[in-house]
Design a protein that fits this description.
single chain; about 500 residues; Rossmann fold; 4-stranded parallel beta sheet; 22 helices; about 45% helix; LarE; PGP-like_dom2; Hydrolase; sulfurtransferase activity; Rossmann-like_a/b/a_fold
Length: about 500
C-alpha cells in the first residue's frame, strides 16, 4: 500500500475590509474632515467624500488641496482621528456574526484596510471585534500581498478596489452592498459573490465550505484508483463509502467491517444492507483485539490497540484484493479533538483520512449525507462496546456481552413505555465480585421529561439493567455525554 497524502486540509483564513464592511465609519470620518477643513480654512465636500469610502485619504484629498499640503493634512487627520472618530463609530449589522461564523470553523480573521493601521486597531479594540491580524495602509491590488501572506482564501469588502485585491490574491471575492458600490459595479469588477449585508455571510460561508470541501473529497478519491474503506456503519464511514463509490465506481471500492466482540450485533445487519445498496463488496474479517494485552488492560490508550488490530487486518486484506489504499472515516473534528489514540495507530499504518483531509466536519458529514439521502445522516454515534467499560477495568467478552444485553433491555423497556431514546450508553464502572456497578446515560432531554417526572420508570430501568448481571445500577442525572469515560482518567472518583 502506498504512503498516504500527509497534507491536511488548509486552515480557513478570511480577510475583511474595515470601513463600510465591518464598521460604519462615515460619521467619524465626516467629523474629522469637518475639523480638518476648519483648521485649514478650506471647504471640503464631506458628504460626497464619505458617500463611497475606499480609496486612501491622500487620494480623497487630492482634488481639494495643493500637492504640498496633502501630506501634512493626512498627518493631521490621523492625529485628530482617535479622539474624534472612534467612539462614535458602530459595527455594521451582521459583523459580529460574520466573524463568529469564521471562528465556528476554527478559522482566522485578517482585517486588511486602507485605514492608518493604529486607527484601524483602535476601532477593532473599541468594538471588541474578534480579529487576529490588522493590516492597514493598503488598498486595491496592494491588499493581495497581505492576503497571500496570511493564506486568506476569502476576502470580504464593499468596494470595487476590494474586489481587485481579492482577485489579485487568488481569493474568493465576497462583496457586501453596505459601502455605496452597486451590485452591477461589483459584478463588473469581477466579484464572485454579492451579499446585501453581512447577515447573509454566515449561511453563504456554510454553503461555500461544504461545496468546496465536497469537491476536494471527490477529487482526492478520484486520484486513489481503488479503496478499501474501514467501515463501521456510522455516519462518517458511510459517507466516505458513498463518496468513494461515486468517485471511483462501486467495483473499485470495498467496505470492510471488522467483526469482534466489541461490535454490537444490532449494528451489523444495517451496516451490511447500506453497503450492499451502494453496490460495493462487503468483507467482514474477524479481528482479535482481545489477544492484545494493551487492549484488554483498558488503559487510556485502549483505542490505539483496537485500531492497530483493525488496520493490521485490513492492510493485507486490501493488498490481497488488489486495492491501492485503506481509508478510515476520521473527520476534521476528530483530528483536533485531543485524546484520540486510535487516530495515531491508523496513521502509523498508512491509513488515509479523506474526510479530514478535505476539512469536512461532523456537522458537514451529516449535512452532506442528508443531501445525498443517506439513511445514516442522523444516525446517533455508535462507539464500540469497549468504550462503555471504565478505564483500568479489564475488557473481556463477558463484560461486553453484558453491556450489550443491558442496553438492549433498556431500549426494550423504554420502547414499551412509549419513550423514544436516541443516545444510550450503559457504562460498566466495575467493582468487586457481586458489587459491579452500571451507570445508564440517556438523552438529557428525557431527564426533564419521562425520566424526570417520577421514580417508577427509573426504578424499572435500573432493575432491567441489574437483571443482565450488574449488582447495582443508576441513571446518570447528567445524561448522555460522548466520551464521558475520558473524564474518569483525570477524576476517577467522579462517576455521576
Amino acid at each position: 500500500m502506498s504512503v498516504p497524502n500527509s497534507s491536511a486540509a488548509p486552515s480557513l483564513v478570511v480577510g475583511f475590509d474595515l470601513d463600510m464592511t465591518l464598521i460604519d465609519s462615515r460619521p467619524g470620518i465626516a467629523e474629522v474632515l469637518e475639523v480638518l477643513a476648519a483648521e485649514l480654512g478650506v471647504v471640503l465636500p464631506v458628504a460626497e467624500m464619505t458617500a463611497r469610502l475606499g480609496p486612501p485619504l491622500d487620494l480623497m484629498l487630492e482634488p481639494h488641496l495643493p500637492a504640498e499640503a496633502i501630506g501634512p493634512a493626512v498627518d493631521r487627520f490621523r492625529a485628530l482621528y482617535p479622539e474624534r472618530a472612534v467612539r462614535s463609530v458602530p459595527s455594521l449589522p451582521g459583523a459580529a456574526a460574520a466573524l463568529a461564523a469564521v471562528r465556528a470553523h476554527a478559522g482566522r480573521v485578517v482585517v486588511v484596510t486602507g485605514k492608518h493601521t493604529p486607527n484601524a486597531r483602535l476601532h477593532v479594540e473599541h468594538l471588541a471585534l474578534d480579529v487576529d491580524v490588522v493590516e492597514g495602509r493598503v488598498w486595491g491590488v496592494g491588499k493581495a500581498d497581505v492576503l497571500r501572506r496570511e493564506g486568506a482564501s476569502i476576502y470580504v469588502g464593499d468596494h470595487v478596489h476590494d474586489v481587485e485585491g481579492a482577485l489579485a490574491a487568488g481569493a474568493t471575492s465576497v462583496s457586501v452592498l453596505s459601502g455605496g458600490a452597486t451590485r452591477e459595479e461589483l459584478l463588473a469588477a469581477g466579484t464572485h459573490v454579492v451579499l446585501d449585508d453581512l447577515d447573509q455571510f454566515a449561511p453563504w460561508l456554510e454553503e461555500h465550505l461544504l461545496e468546496q470541501r465536497t469537491a476536494a473529497l471527490e477529487a482526492d478519491l478520484r486520484e486513489r484508483g481503488s479503496l478499501l474503506v474501514a467501515y463501521s456503519g456510522g455516519a462518517d464511514s458511510a459517507l466516505l463509502l458513498a463518496a468513494a463509490a461515486r468517485a471511483l465506481g462501486p467495483e473499485r471500492v470495498v467496505a470492510a467491517t471488522g467483526y469482534s466482540h466489541a461490535l454490537p450485533q444490532i449494528e451489523r445487519d444495517p451496516a451490511r444492507t447500506f453497503a450492499e445498496a451502494l453496490g460495493v463488496r462487503v468483507l467482514t474479517p474477524p479481528t482479535h483485539e482481545m489477544e492484545r494485552e494493551g487492549y484488554r488492560a483498558n488503559a487510556g490508550d485502549r483505542c490505539f490497540f483496537c485500531k492497530a488490530e483493525l488496520l493490521d487486518t485490513l492492510v493485507p486484506l486490501a493488498a490481497e484484493h488488489g486495492l491501492a489504499h485503506v481509508a478510515t472515516g476520521t473527520n476534521a473534528d476528530d483530528v483536533v479533538a485531543g485524546f484520540r489514540p486510535g487516530i495515531r495507530a491508523a496513521a502509523e499504518r498508512g491509513a488515509l483520512t479523506p474526510l479530514a483531509d478535505a476539512g469536512l466536519t461532523k456537522a458537514q458529514v451529516r449535512e452532506l449525507s442528508r443531501r445525498w439521502a443517506l439513511p445514516t445522516w442522523d444516525k446517533p454515534a455508535a462507539a464500540c462496546l469497549s468504550s462503555r467499560v471504565a478505564y483500568g477495568i479489564e475488557v473481556t467478552p463477558h463484560r461486553l456481552a453484558r453491556v450489550e444485553r443491558a442496553e438492549g433491555a433498556v431500549r426494550e423497556l423504554l420502547a414499551g413505555a412509549g419513550v423514544a431514546v436516541r443516545d444510550l450508553r450503559v457504562r460498566d464502572l466495575g467493582g468487586g465480585p457481586g458489587e459491579e456497578h452500571a451507570r445508564v446515560e440517556v438523552d438529557a432531554g428525557l431527564l426533564r421529561g419521562p425520566l424526570g417526572e417520577g421514580r417508577a420508570l427509573v426504578d424499572e430501568l435500573c432493575a432491567a439493567v441489574r437483571r443482565t448481571g450488574f449488582a447495582t445500577a443508576e441513571l446518570s442525572r447528567r445524561g448522555f455525554r460522548s466520551g464521558s469515560m475520558n473524564e474518569l482518567l483525570d477524576e476517577p472518583e467522579r462517576w455521576r
